[in-house]
From TrEMBL:
Originating organism: Tianweitania populi
Enzyme Commission code(s) on record: 4.1.99.3
InterPro entries per the UniProt record, alphabetical: Crypto/Photolyase_FAD-like_sf, Crypto/Photolyase_N_sf, DNA_photolyase_N, Photolyase_Class-2, Rossmann-like_a/b/a_fold
Essential cofactor(s): (6R)-5,10-methylene-5,6,7,8-tetrahydrofolate; FAD
Catalytic activity annotation: cyclobutadipyrimidine (in DNA) = 2 pyrimidine residues (in DNA)
A biological process from GO: photoreactive repair
Keyword annotations of the record: DNA damage, DNA repair, DNA-binding, FAD, Flavoprotein, Lyase
Family as reported in the entry's similarity comment: Belongs to the DNA photolyase class-2 family.
Domain Photolyase/cryptochrome alpha/beta as annotated: residue spans: 21-152
GO MF annotation list: deoxyribodipyrimidine photo-lyase activity; DNA binding
Protein name (database record): Deoxyribodipyrimidine photo-lyase
Highest taxon of the lineage: Bacteria
Amino acid sequence: MTIDPRRIRMLKEAPADTKGRYVLYLLQQANRAYNNPALELAIEEANQRGLPVVACFGLLDGANGFPEANARHYAFLLQGLSDAARGLAKREIGFVMRKCSPARIAIDLAEEAALLVLDRGYLGIQTEWYADICKKVHTSIVQVEGDVAVPVEVASPRHEFGARTLRPKIANELEDFLSPLRSRKVKHPAQELGLTSEIDISDPDAVLASMTLDRSVGPVKRFKGGETEARRRLKAFLSGPFEHYGDNRGKPEAGAASHMSPYLHFGQISPVEIVLAARAANASREDKAAFVEEVVVRRELAMNHVFYTARYDSYEDAVPEWARQTLAERAGDARPHLYTDDQLARGETHDDGWNSAMKEMRETGYMHNHLRMYWGKKILEWSRTPEDGFDRTLRLNNRFFLDGRDPNSFTNVAWIYGLHDRPWVKRPIFGTVRYQNENSLRKINLNAYQQDVERLCALEDGSSQPVQEEEEPRLL
């Protein structure tokens, strides 16, 4: 029930007699009111000081918006924040939202804070915010890890070669970090502080409409943001498809995916909560092990990559030297098919299976991991140079996926070009980088998958009746 001290980092220490009206929590990576170690630590510290807790969120908008975020991403984010705000109010925690950067709101509100608590993300823009906050805030600052099961530096002090090298290191530490997190009772309600929020997040659609942002990619109906919805989906998954997860996880048509990735990306559910729930579910040891491999080992390998790679979005830095060398050697090979960015985005290629996967991604914000690999390998094959392919893959990934712009996404795109992999048989265009062709699609029931895509896309455009709210969704 306690927070492992290895999750906690003191970033700045102010004099012991520092006064304040509240303990401030910058709700940035962990956008949830429960199972949130940073929030629980803020409550503990506030109770000890006889103070209330105030959570805050800075909403980037207009020209200073979050890089590559569009209406699809913001709709999901705002739905989650609306849900979190309700949970915070229920716990008598104050919540302030403003249109500014996360660093700006934290710096401003910390002027009257006895302590500032941060959660933790691993993207470059987030580390820049943390550095700015530490430079300009004069009170004590503590940061609490709640986005991974095993903190990155605890798992490994270096960039790992791949899952096989990180897996045993994670295994050595995992049990110590899988303790349930008790919800602390707030002793001093925040209502009397008089702090006001300039954004009414109770109506996320209205907030979205008021923003200046890219609306070329719109919100989706397939996924609703928020920790309440994340837990509902997790419960549905664990009581149904999870029972055969090990056998079916590689088949898009089998309905074995958990769909937790968007919720993890936006911090709307804890990976520890997911693992504990999976362990308690009615499934075989093999199914549970396969799921933990995805939620913990594979996901935290991505965190390791972006943490130890300064320019994880750069072909030169993210792709290993052996892969760049072999791809450069085959850069002059003839490419039977070349497509523009627009043709790829519209799914106008000669490959019907690829087009269906692109349609699912474009219209619903999701694509099964098995197809993501094939999808990316084909973009490499259909691009003039590997550098061009890398950039195009990343642009499409970040534009359409709900969980784009995530450490997993940056890592998965680099994997297509050789990261966390080894040399294979030499081929045209790919050199010794792993190759995939249409035979990969023969491992799945492509016809069943394409029918599901058409059904899901019909729900998005309103030409089919949506599933009733009380029914469990069919999970792809």
